[in-house]
Amino acid sequence: MSGIRTNSGNRVQREWEIPARQTRFHKKGDFFMPLTIWPGALADPSGYILFQTKEQLEACAGVHYRGKGTANVRLGVHGGISNIRNYVRKRQGNLDSAREVL
What we know:
This protein is an alpha+beta fold. The chain has one domain (8-101). It is built from three helices and seven strands; from the N terminus they run αββββαβββα. The chain has helices at residues 8-15, 54-59, 95-101; strands at 22-25, 31-32, 40-44, 47-51, 63-66, 74-77, 88-89. Strands 1-3-4-7 form a four-stranded mixed β-sheet. A hairpin with a 2-residue loop joins strand 3 (40-44) and strand 4. The longest helix is centred in the first third of the chain and has 8 residues, at 8-15. It is globular. The two termini are 17 Å apart. Residues 94-102 have low confidence and may be disordered.
């Protein structure tokens, strides 16, 4: 992890017109900072998934909190968000070519 802030979530939210107030981005789609504003979206280089409420996120079988109760809380998504129902695909191709665009 580089520790460099990329603002990729904000960028894909604008470019893809994601109807969210907050978008978190991860290049592999499996590890995110928690959403704190709703509706919120989790995005990877190929698409996103939108959650209208915190309750909807917490009810999603593929998403789990890691480090809950600590200062290092993250969202883990086993297999990546592209495997979750209602995933919106915005780009085809492999992650390496998509990463260059972002």
